[in-house]
Amino acid sequence: xxxxxxxxxxxxxxxxxxxxxxxxxxxxxxxxxxxxxxxxxxxxxxxxxxxxxxxxxxxxxxxxxxxxxxxxxxxxxxxxxxxxxxxxxxxxxxx
Length: 95
Hints:
By secondary structure, the protein is mainly beta. It folds into 2 domains: about 1-45, no CATH class; about 60-90, no CATH class. About 5% of the residues lie in helices and about 30% in strands. It contains 1 helix and 6 strands; from the N terminus they run βββαβββ. The strands form 2 sheets. Strands 2-1-3 form a 3-stranded antiparallel beta sheet, with no helix packed on it. It has a 3-stranded antiparallel beta sheet with strand order 4-5-6, with no helix packed on it. It is rod-shaped. About 5% of the residues are buried.
């Protein structure tokens, strides 16, 4: 469930410090009044944190080889040489 931020419609409030947060379901109706000061409020955009799985260590040659991948480097038109992994030493196009 996301955490939503709200603020009073008419500016800062000394009772609620100007903003409040609430953990709500995505389908829950937004608040219309502050639970502390009862002033009208609206939902505001807030920052969030999302970590991706791609880190430098997850795509390192050592880690990719350990996971069974083979990487090739292009050395000419239609020619590739293996950099690491268990595949064939070279790949060539038949053209």
